Amino acid sequence: MVTKGRDYYLGLRRRYEPSVVELIIVAESPPASGKYFYDPSGSIAEPLFAAFMRQIGIVPVRKEAGLREFQSKGWVLVDATYQQVDKLPQDAAQDRNALIEGDYSLLVADLASLMSDRGVPLILIKANVCRILEPRLTKDGFNVVNAGRLVYFPSTGQQKKFEQQFASVLKSVG
Length: 174
Hints:
By secondary structure, the protein is an alpha/beta fold. The chain has a single domain, classed as Uracil-DNA glycosylase-like domain (Uracil-DNA Glycosylase, subunit E), CATH 3.40.470. The chain has seven helices and four strands; from the N terminus they run αβααβααβαβα. Helix 6 links the parallel strand 3 and strand 4. Helix 2 crosses helix 3 and helix 2 packs across helix 7. The chain is globular.
């Protein structure tokens, strides 16, 4: 496992940022596995990528095509922190959450760089991200559309729940 820095991940994402952002999805962090959503050399079977392709109703042959379709919808995925928190021990949830909280100002700056105003809808995914960030982002004037609803991460048996939860939250985006 090679740890890559924030600039590496942002560089990959910038290639696929839409010119007009319609929806921002906030996830936890890039995975330690290296299977980063915006890495076009990755597999279309990666859990998060595959889940979003199902949400937009396409089955791309290559990851690049799916990323371009995601971009054309005006969707962008950002991470709450660009430190790989999933590599922390399972009993280190407090440490994981502390890293997310510690990078909050970086997240706010990242979000501000993507939107013309704070009215752009945000959907938070992964239970801890929802719990930690929804109150703070809402208080700071962002349009978090979860409205207290958790959206689980689409892996380890949570794929169907993710699809239902994300679709439900997405319906509230006007």
